[in-house]
Amino acid sequence: MECLRCGYEMTAFDRECPRCANMQAQVEGDAAPGDVDIDLLPSTPPPPPELAPRPPVPPPTCAPTPNYRPEGSSGLAVAAMILGIVSFPLGPVGLITGPLAIILGSVSLSRRQPGGPMAIVGVVLGCVAFLVSLVVGPIVAAILFPVFARARAKAQQNSCLSNVKQLNLGMLMYASDYDDRWPYAGNWPDAILPYINNTQIYACPSDGRTDGRSNKQTSGCSESVSYTMSPAFNGFYAGFPYPPGTLPPGETGVLFDGTQLGGGRDVAAYRHNGGLNVGYADGHVKWVGKKHFGEIALSPWQASVSSQVAPATTP
């Protein structure tokens, strides 16, 4: 059918003319204007017109940059800061922890990881701790090493004092079994060995000759024994009371640090802080300085009656 105003060919579905918007149309045949022949209607509606393609969507203007990192801090940055902080109280250990903090912080910064300020703090503290350790470390070592050396020497002195105590008691036990007579200086280590049953105490820890060891057969081998017996006590009476003209047993030294099995002050060894350990005739022991060792009597007899010493027989 066609429009009555402009003659535009209209379809059966057009309610008005697409050209002039007139709602009246002439249908072929005897139909009145505006009527639509139902038979002329198509059985199916025509397909919808094709949609025009959408224009491409432009990229967003706030796209993330390639260097974008999420919020937070990397483990390297945290570790660098912690190592830098703990390097100060650790003292000389800062020579190790300081460079570690510098390395970890530098790696974190080079990779542009989150937590840059923490990495910078770790690097700075690590450098400062490392430099401080380089300066303070030798000073602290110079102060502590002598302290450690004195502590070690004191421990060796106490160990040696314990050895002298046991050896002195072994001599007294020997005397109680042999008519209250002291052993002889030439073989005293073998004589008291059954009473102490330990050859290790013959060696002083500070005696480099024995190297902390002692041979079981000590007779005639002075290098395996670190202690010297005064020969004035060879077979001397160890009972109480002492004979007239003798010194009190608490004032006479029997055993001391030395280099031979028997001898006097000329073979004494001052191994312990400028002194030596001395075992007395009454059984007590103590450390004596080199100056005062010359004042200790190594003979039970007084000087006025020293000529009265009579040789004793070997038990």
Q: How many helices in DSSP terms? A: 5
Order of helices and strands: EEHHHHEEEEH
Provide the helix percentage: 25-40%
* Proportion of strand residues: 5-15%
> Rg from C-alpha positions?
55 Å
Terminus-to-terminus distance? 160 Å
- The largest sheet has its strands arranged as 3-4-5-6
Oligomerization: single chain
Instruction: Tell me the count of domains.
Output: 3
Structural class: alpha+beta
Q: Identify the overall geometry.
A: rod-shaped
> In total, how many beta strands?
6
What is the topological layout?
Layout: E1 2-3, E2 25-26, H1 75-86, H2 94-110, H3 116-177, H4 188-196, E3 227-229, E4 253-257, E5 275-280, E6 285-289, H5 290-293
Antiparallel strand pairs: 1-2, 3-4, 4-5, 5-6
Helix pairs in contact: 1-2, 1-3, 2-3, 3-4
Describe what you observe in this structure:
The protein is of the alpha+beta class and 315 residues long. 33% of the residues lie in helices and 7% in strands. The protein has helices at residues 75-86, 94-110, 116-177, 188-196, 290-293; strands spanning 2-3, 25-26, 227-229, 253-257, 275-280, 285-289. It starts with a strand and ends in a 22-residue tail after the last helix. The chain has five helices and six strands, in the order ββααααββββα. It has a four-stranded antiparallel beta sheet. It has a two-stranded antiparallel ribbon with strand order 1-2. The chain has three domains: 1-36, no CATH class; 75-150, no CATH class; 167-308, no CATH class. Residues 211-222 and 304-315 have low confidence and may be disordered. The radius of gyration is 55 Å and the shape is rod-shaped.
